[in-house]
Design brief:
By secondary structure, this protein is mainly β. The chain has strands at residues 12-14, 17-19, 25-34, 42-48, 53-57, 62-68, 70-71, 80-84, 87-91, 97-103, 105-106, 114-119, 122-126, 140-141, 150-153, 159-162, 168-174, 176-177, 185-189, 195-199, 204-210, 212-213, 222-226, 230-234.
Length: 263
C-alpha cells in the first residue's frame, strides 16, 4: 500500500512466487527477454523508484543495480544500450558490459550494426564486437534495414543511402528520405514538398506526387496524403490500396518516418 500521490512499488511474479525487488521497482521497460541460460531465466531493463535505471531478472533481483542514468531494452541481437555517467555502451543478456560506455550517443543494433556518435556531428557504425564497420564519419546515420541500406548524410546537406561497407548505394539528393522496407522500396522527397517511392537503385517507382508518404508499415502499406482532403494507403508499387473506413484499417508506421538530421 502507498499513500495517495505516491507511485506504487511493482512486484515480480515468477514460477508462482511473488518477489519485491530491493531497491523498489517503479517500471519495467519492455518485455522480459530470455537470458539464454536454458533454465527459464529472463532479463529486462527497469527503473527503480528513485528514477535510476538498471536490469532486473525474473526473480526480482537486480542483475545490474539501478545506478544508471538510462537503460534500454534488448534487441534481436541480444544487446541493450545503457548510459553511465553521460556515456553510452552495450550490455548482453547476462547484464555484462560487452561494449564499454564511451559514446556520446548510441542507437540500437539493426542487422548487426549500430550507429554511435563519437564527437560533434561525427557518427560511425560499429558491429556487435564494438569494432568500427568502416572508416569515415557521417553527419547523420540511420538504422540499417532488411534491404541492407541505411539513410545517411555526409558532408552535404542532402541525405542518401549507404550499404554495409559505407559506400553510397544511392547518392545524397534527398531532403526527406525514409528507411527502406523489406519490400525494397522507400518513400522519399527531394524537395521536402512532394513525395514519391524509390527502389534500391534510387529510381522512382512512383514519381513525387503526394504531399506526404509515411514509411511502410508491417502490412507492406504506406499511409499517404494527397492534399488536405484525400488520404489512403499505397502498396510497394505506389498503387492506392483502400484500407476501408472501419475495423481492420492497418496502422501507420510507428517508427520515425523521415530523417531531417540537425546534429
Amino acid at each position: 500500500m502507498k499513500a495517495a500521490g505516491e507511485p506504487p512499488d511493482l512486484l515480480v511474479l515468477h514460477r508462482g512466487q511473488v518477489r519485491q525487488p530491493v531497491p523498489a521497482l517503479l517500471q519495467v521497460l519492455g518485455a522480459f527477454c530470455d537470458d539464454g541460460d536454458g533454465d527459464g531465466g529472463a532479463i529486462v531493463a527497469a527503473v527503480a523508484v528513485d528514477g535510476r535505471h538498471g536490469y532486473l531478472n525474473a526473480s526480482g533481483d537486480w542483475i545490474v543495480e539501478p545506478t544508471l542514468k538510462d537503460a534500454r531494452s534488448f534487441g534481436s541481437d541480444g544487446l541493450a544500450r545503457f548510459c553511465d555517467q553521460g556515456l553510452w555502451g552495450y550490455r548482453n543478456l547476462k547484464g555484462a558490459v560487452v561494449i564499454a560506455a564511451q559514446y556520446e550517443k548510441a542507437e540500437a543494433f539493426n542487422f548487426g550494426l549500430a550507429a554511435v556518435r563519437t564527437g560533434s556531428r561525427q557518427w560511425r557504425y560499429i558491429d556487435t564486437s564494438g569494432q568500427f564497420a568502416f572508416d569515415g564519419f557521417l553527419r547523420h546515420a540511420g538504422p540499417f534495414t532488411a534491404a541492407g541500406l541505411a539513410v545517411a548524410r555526409g558532408s552535404t546537406c542532402k541525405c542518401g543511402y549507404i550499404d554495409r561497407s559505407g559506400a553510397w548505394a544511392i547518392a545524397p539528393r534527398f531532403e526527406r528520405p525514409a528507411p527502406f522496407s523489406a519490400l525494397g522500396v522507400a518513400p522519399a522527397s527531394e524537395d521536402g514538398e512532394l513525395y514519391g517511392i524509390i527502389n534500391q537503385q534510387g529510381e522512382w517507382v512512383l514519381a513525387p506526387c503526394h504531399s506526404q508518404i509515411d514509411a511502410f508499415n508491417d502490412d507492406g502499406l504506406a499511409y499517404f496524403q494527397a492534399g488536405r482532403d484525400h488520404e489512403d494507403y499505397l502498396d510497394a508499387s505506389g498503387v492506392p490500396r483502400s484500407a476501408g473506413n472501419g475495423a481492420g484499417k492497418p496502422p501507420r508506421s510507428l517508427s520515425v518516418h523521415y530523417h531531417r538530421p540537425i546534429d
